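@channel anyone free to eyeball this complex?
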Amino acid sequence: MRKKMRLLTSLLALLGSFVLVASACGSSDDSSDDGGALTMAIVAPSASDDLAFSQSMVDSVNALDREITLSITDGTFIVEEAAAAIRGYAEDGIDVVIAHGTQFGASLAEIAPDFPDTTFVWGTATDTQGLGNVFAYSPASDEGGYVNGVVAAAVSESGKIGVVGPVEAGDAVPYINGFTTAAEAGGAQVSVTYTGSFGDVALAAEAAQAHLANDADVLTGTAQMVVGAVGVAADAGVPWFGTQSNQTSLAPDLVIASQVYHWEVVLEEMLDLRDSGTKGGKAFEINLANGGLVIEFNDGYDLSDDVRASADAAIAGIIDGSVNTGA
Amino acid sequence: MINKLLGGLVPFIAALAAFACGAIMLVALGANPFVGLEAIFDGAFGSGDRIAVTAVRATPLILVGAGITIAFRTNVINIGGESQIIAGALLATVTALALPDLPAVVLIPLIIVAGAVGGGILGAIPGALKAYASVNEILSTIMLNLMMVQFMNYLLRGPLIDPYELQAGTRIPQTQRLSDNAALPSLAGDTRLHLGVLIAVLAAGVAYVILWRTPIGFRLRAVGHSPKAARAAGINVKRNITLALTISGSLAGIAGAILVFGSEGQRMVTDGSATGFTSSAGFNGIVAALFGGLHPLWTVPSAFLFGALLTGATQLQRVLQVPSSLAVAMNGLIVIFVISSSRVRSWLDKTLSDSKLFNKQDDADSSHEEMSQTNG
Amino acid sequence: MGDFFTTSVLVATAASAVRLATPYLLAALGETIGQRSGVLNLGVDGVMMLSAFFAYWTVLETGNMWLGVLVALLVGLMMGVLYGVITVFFEATQGISGIGIFIFGLGFSDLLFRQQVGTPKPIRRLPNIDIPLLSDIPYIGEPLFQRNLMTYAAFALVPVTMIVLNKTTFGLNIRSVGENPQAADSLGVSVERTRFSAIMIGNAFAGLAGAALVLQLGIFQPHLTQGMGFIAVALVYFGAWKPLGVMGGALLFGLVNAVVLQWKALGIIPVSISDLAGMAPAVVTIIALVLLARRVNAPAALTKPFVRS
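replying in thread with the prediction:
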């Protein structure tokens, strides 16, 4: 049956008459190692261009300084579906499979041992579950949260700041903790609302409205549903701080800064290790010090020089260890 | 004979038409439709392992579908599958957490029963609300779906969270790895085909027996057929309405237990949404049941078909880089086309044969008619 | 708790409730009309998602908000034609065909968004329009009369729907084919045409609901509605098939949501139980219905396809 399918695939590929047909016929299994570009795949829970978590990984892989053939399966927030995709990529002989979701870890523990030649990259996670062919990655998102918090407290006039989060879990927690620590140290009062949903844009928007009603004049938030809250901030003319991806495009005049995840810093290290024969077994963290976390300020927002200086001081302090983010 | 043959072909033609629409969408996306359809097929049936995954994906649909059959035959609509699956999964998880050291022969039946109880409670609530407080079951089941998601998030983030997650600060809302004694054993070597699939098929059989071979089923169907007549015959209508939704919920609850203990991760995890855990089985199960003509046994192949589409969709995205939402849209079209075709079928029956002898519609058709009378 | 009972916070909460209620109200009013004619449509959520996407896309491309509303209305009408053909001409089972429409809308809107737009880009949001004099009334002026046009339209459609259903021949026809299609048919009312029209209107309302949602948010994202359409269907049962009751249900649901969010913002609801608090809108809706204990019968022919004997 499988043989027949393969035959059919090849035939159809022939009919497809693309440029690559010749090479596809040459190797009956077109995804096996052909010695050329490294093949990578990403399995991500939300849309690959969500301006948040998933996009951060796609952007990072595209920023890698290597020749890479990348395939993406996105929107697989159903864990079992993601597991099927991860296994499928490994079966196809993809070199590096990125399971971009903490919740995929349990499935990965079952899949990875079946494919010892494949490198799996999993995050956000702080350990590799003892698996020899898994690299783990996590963001020190409290660091960017802290820097954003410093600036937020400085620009807030009412001294009240609102935070919109999805569910109190995952990397939303350290980001919000870091943010709160810094903002409170700066004399501001921080109020956190978890809407209970990663997808409910309308509820996130109203959560932002509720903060505004309580005199908040600076907002931030995490996860993909915050696009609704950014819209509210934009309408009210209230500054916004982003995280995960650069969210400036959502409110070009009002996003002050975004903490952006540059996974390529650690991905590069992982690929180097793989080249030298180590398939996994190590956990990485992106942070301000290694350049994996970058606070991208929006030039479209006129931030005063001394506030910018205090942000830079916070960044420097976190890097040299003199500042404690409280997370 | 000829009209039977043609009649049987109509749903297939309808499904083909839906696939043709899917092919058109693929062309519009600049992809080769044949490669796409082949990818779906290959993803669902391409290897023993994939067939096993398809069967595993079909499992909750079979259970929910069998439950839906019982509810709809009693003239109540159960759109609360999502909440019942979650409740069953939660109670089964708590059971395994509390009694991890029981031997598998005891623990596995126990978690299945716990799942049934959890789901049953979430079925009994809308049942009792409908029977004794005249709250429409569509309203209450939709509201209970909303509630159970939040309740699941609360438990997995708070009381049930893996202590390691708190300690490491990663705080993934998931339980610790549950007892291996509760893991559903594989039925076929290394594949994912686990005991849950067998349980589901058996449950569909039990649902069939209950409905047509026991006095309970007789009473349920009597209530479904005409509450007035049933009451006149001395049947307690209220109790039977509650019972129908309770059984329906229990079957969905078993699906929840199987989702946890047949998963690769052997733990319960949430992404904050219901669908992230249930894969919308609470809704897809309704579709599977109605496709199977509201007959518990026919629900099995029907669920398998939908399991195949769902599994194949993942492959479609991997091979062609086409969003898997295309397959979701196509699923919708298949439902619409096939459900419309039952009318075409009866027209065919009428035109092709004047004889009463050949005009006997099969079970699927007549049950569609019955379904249309639900919710009085 | 004291923070909550200040004028500004109460007013903001009420305004939030009205905003949240708007898409529910529009969709539920449409569903009411359909159900009164005997047709259950579980596909509202799918129609809302599709129309929300098309409204969003239109505004993104043209910048014209009203064109967006018009397109959403047309998408609603088209889906109405589809649903009408399925349920009236093909006499298909309504429960399952509605779920088919829902699944189709879910998948197709997602597909289109990814192909045509991709990254969520903001569009202009509906501006609030103050109604002269009324908007200055203390307490109720801001929540009720400083809203956007879609909200005004939604609430204006409540009395319109009441009048159409109760005072016009068309409304009488809708009710009669929903209660006893055989009798209506024998009196010369075209059951098919009446139901078809009711379905078209109902879906057009769902289209408007999608437009209202997306234009209030100013952004689209896959699966934007998050089951709102299903809640709208539930609200029809809550409102006992009466426009005023449906409006009460939509406002109650919106209000509980708004209060919960406000309490979370004020810290009255601690983060540790924020999910439990999220259950409140659904719980309150069910309890309210139990306490009201109205024994209202559904339209007698609801979900029954009409077959002329």
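from a first look: Chain A touches chain B through 54 residues (CB under 8 Å).
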